[in-house]
Design a protein that fits this description.
Helix content is 39%, strand content 20%. With 484 residues, it is α+β, with helices and mostly antiparallel strands. α7 packs parallel to α9. The radius of gyration is 30 Å and the shape is elongated. Bound molecules: zinc ion. Zinc ion binds next to loops.
């Protein structure tokens, strides 16, 4: 896109809440079950069936609202969004329209070293539609099949203000959003399975212009990878249209990931096309103040707050704080290790160095570290063994590997393998003397001023003790001996 233009992007994300039952009935929300098994008269939209609100879904939506710094509206309203589509058996979707659950929030993003706040205009709750299956059947060429398992599954739609100015900003926003929802345990953020779906409103304008250009809505962006690509493609397309004297048509465009381009689908609906009106089957959603307070109290420390704390309290770099807060489980693992050992710096180094590599090699899911053989207690104990001089830093590496392989406590490993550091000076002196005798060349070189030979001699002593000698003591002993 020509640099005279500026991108204006807003995102609308549908996030599936992690409840076990649907929004207005007790059917299961389980993914991947046989088609149409998780259905009942309510979510099939049969005549006379009435919706009953799922309280757990409201609690999760409120948590999402609080996590995105929104004002939670004590009263919000269910509205019917009317449209005809075979996957929508009632002919309308129960959603929220002019009175949403939460408003006026924000998410902080970090792009090219710059922090920026992206406004969250609103969060509203709604039920999901069913799914049309156009493939996979012998007669798929002429028939479409329908699966209503997803019909009535609770969603929140999170709408940003048009504050994003590049595809990188949109990508970082989505990453932060996913992270917050995962920390709060309200959405698993899985774009491939459709539990996080994202539409992008994209327009361009001349830099410095106040008026927004005509926007298009991009749909079907079903992976994080494609967010950047789809937006960049669309920005370039719009710039080319304007450059060639054309004008942008307001429309919905589908991202085609095979051809890596957006394709016109239909002219964009306006809100009035949906003929919204309050759902007569459902009363106002009124939040009890004590209940709301309980939800507020149940909030945990969010990733951004954790990063700030790690940077300020532990003098950690932004990068390290970012790595250690990748998932809630990892952040909690670090916090616990730091607390138990009293050495946050060592805890951070061991986790970011060895432990993350082990996790990667054995495909441990960083969202669930209950599978990890090494616990915060074990790692903290090992850090203390080094601190107390029981084992050397070098031996600690061996202990770490052994802990990960066997799940044994570090104290047990040190004892079983005889890894205790040799700090008995008499014992070390003997080894030092042997090394001096065996390496007369290096000794002569050192004495003639070649300081580098000291490193070689220390290395030989470490080798002779299988790394169990305290390098500092070895250094001192060698210097004393060679000075004499
Ligand atoms: Zn149902």
């Amino acid at each position: 896109m020509d640099s005279k233009y500026e991108a204006v992007i807003g995102l609308e994300c549908h996030c599936q809440l992690l409840t076990s039952s649907k929004l207005f009935c007790s059917c299961s929300t389980g993914f991947g079950e046989p088609a149409n098994m998780n259905t009942c008269p309510v979510c099939l939209g049969l005549p006379g069936a009435l919706p009953v609100l799922n309280k757990a879904a409201v609690a999760m939506a409120v948590k999402a609202g609080l996590g995105l710094n929104c004002i939670i509206n004590r009263e919000s309203q269910w509205s019917r969004k009317n449209y005809f589509y075979p996957d929508l058996p009632k002919g309308y979707q129960i959603s929220q329209y002019d009175r949403p659950l939460a408003e006026h929030g924000s998410i902080e993003i970090l792009v090219n070293g710059e922090h920026k706040k992206i406004g969250v205009q609103r969060i509203h709750m709604e039920e999901d539609a069913g799914k049309s299956l156009h493939e996979g059947f012998p007669d798929s060429g002429k028939n479409t099949y329908l699966d209503y398992n997803r019909s009535g599954v609770p969603l929140v739609e999170i709408v940003t203000k048009p504050d994003l100015r590049s595809s990188e900003e949109a990508y970082d926003y989505l990453t932060r959003l996913k992270e917050i929802l995962e920390y709060l345990d309200v959405c698993d953020g899985n774009m491939e399975e459709g539990s996080l779906r994202c539409d992008a409103n994209v327009s361009i304008r001349l830099k410095g212009a106040e008026k927004f250009g005509t926007r298009t809505e991009l749909k079907n962006i079903n992976s994080f990878r494609f967010v950047r690509k789809a937006i960049d493609y669309e920005l370039n397309r719009q710039a080319e249209v304007l450059e060639s004297g054309g004008r942008i048509v307001q429309e919905t465009r589908l991202w085609n990931s095979d051809e890596e381009r957006t394709v016109s689908m239909r002219s964009k609906e306006e809100a009035h096309d949906y003929r919204y009106f309050p759902d007569p089957d459902l009363p106002l959603l009124v939040l009890d103040s004590d209940w709301l307070e309980d939800v507020r109290k149940s909030m945990i420390e969010l990733p951004a707050a954790r990063r700030t704390r790690f940077v300020t309290a532990y003098a950690m770099s932004d990068y390290d704080a970012g790595v250690l807060t990748m998932t809630r489980a990892l952040a909690e693992f670090f916090d616990e290790t730091a607390r138990l050992s009293g050495y946050p710096k060592a805890a951070a180094n061991w986790i970011m160095g060895d432990l993350l590599r082990f996790f990667k090699d054995s495909n441990v899911d960083l969202k669930d570290l209950s599978q990890s053989r090494v616990t915060p207690k074990m790692l903290a104990d090992m850090i203390l063994l080094v601190d107390q001089g029981t084992i050397s830093g070098k031996i600690a590496k061996t202990v770490m590997e052994e802990m990960y392989a066997t799940g044994k406590a570090p104290g047990v490993i040190v004892e079983e393998k005889g890894l205790v550091q040799i700090s008995n000076t008499g014992e070390l002196e003997k080894i030092v003397d042997t090394v001096i005798t065996q390496h007369a060349d290096a000794v002569a070189q050192y004495r003639s001023g070649k300081q580098g030979s000291m490193g070689f001699l220390v290395g030989q002593v470490m080798k002779a003790t299988q790394g169990r000698a305290n390098p500092q003591t070895v250094n001192e002993l060698l210097r004393n001996r060679l000075a004499g």
